[in-house]
């Protein structure tokens, strides 16, 4: 009996694979043996068998083709349905993503507005604090300047008082020095007068001593002359 080709259809991913098996694997031929004598077959019988086999083969091929067409149609329908589902999924996913993006953009704008508001409030607080700090610094600077001015005025007054006290002390010292100089001058003049008097007295005493010495020398000379004259008279 002649083998009819077998068609095998498989779905691989999005493609369809069709394998046609023409015949089964041939079994190894047995060793040649002498066959028994068979009755003779006529050409008409062989021709009829071939025609019957061709009809059966054609019928099987038609059935296989119909089955293959049905399976291909089913696969195409499944593929089309899958594409529709994919398109629907893509569409719904895109819409959901767009909604999420719109919501995210709205949230972003809201967050930015909130951030701007908070930054503005913080800047206003900082400006108020800065202004208050500046006013406080100005008040402190003014108080410091007033204190410095008061200290300078007090120092100037104290300096004037100190200068007046120093001038008074210098004047008193000058008067004391003048009095001391006057007293010293008077004492010096008195000392000079005393020294001059003593010098004059000493000069007078010295002159008197010299005169006494001269007088004594004259008396001595007179005595010596008298002794000489007396001695000369005795010798004569």
UniProtKB/TrEMBL annotation:
Pfam families: Stathmin (PF00836)
GO MF: tubulin binding
PROSITE patterns for this protein: STATHMIN_3
UniProt GO cellular component terms: cytoplasm; neuron projection
InterPro entries according to UniProt: Stathmin_fam (IPR000956), Stathmin_sf (IPR036002)
PANTHER family linked: STATHMIN (PTHR10104), STATHMIN, ISOFORM D (PTHR10104:SF1)
Lineage of the species this protein comes from: Eukaryota, Metazoa, Ecdysozoa, Arthropoda, Crustacea
Superkingdom of the source species: Eukaryota
Protein name (record): Stathmin
Species name: Notodromas monacha
One BP annotation, GO: microtubule depolymerization
Segments traversing the membrane: none
Segments of this protein annotated with the region Disordered: 214-236
């Amino acid at each position: 009996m002649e083998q009819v080709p077998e068609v095998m259809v498989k779905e691989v991913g999005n493609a369809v694979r069709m394998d046609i098996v023409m015949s089964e694997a041939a079994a190894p031929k047995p060793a040649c043996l002498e066959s028994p004598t068979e009755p003779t077959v006529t050409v008409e019988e062989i021709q009829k068998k071939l025609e019957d086999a061709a009809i059966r083969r054609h019928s099987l091929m038609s059935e296989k083709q119909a089955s293959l067409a049905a399976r291909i149609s089913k696969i195409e329908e499944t593929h089309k349905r899958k594409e529709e589902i994919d398109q629907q999924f893509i569409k719904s996913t895109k819409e959901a993503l767009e909604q999420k993006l719109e919501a995210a953009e709205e949230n972003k704008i809201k967050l930015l507005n909130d951030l701007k508001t908070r930054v503005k409030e913080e800047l206003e607080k900082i400006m108020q604090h800065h202004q208050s700090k500046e006013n406080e610094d100005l008040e402190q600077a003014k108080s410091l300047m007033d204190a410095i001015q008061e200290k300078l005025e007090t120092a100037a007054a104290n300096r004037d008082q100190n200068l007046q006290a120093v001038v008074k002390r210098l004047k008193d010292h000058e008067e004391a020095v003048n009095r001391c100089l006057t007293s010293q001058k008077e004492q010096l003049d008195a000392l000079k007068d005393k020294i001059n008097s003593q010098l004059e007295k000493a000069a007078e005493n010295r002159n008197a001593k010299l005169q006494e010495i001269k007088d004594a020398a004259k008396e001595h000379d007179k005595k010596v002359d008298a002794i000489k004259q007396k001695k000369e008279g005795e010798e004569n």
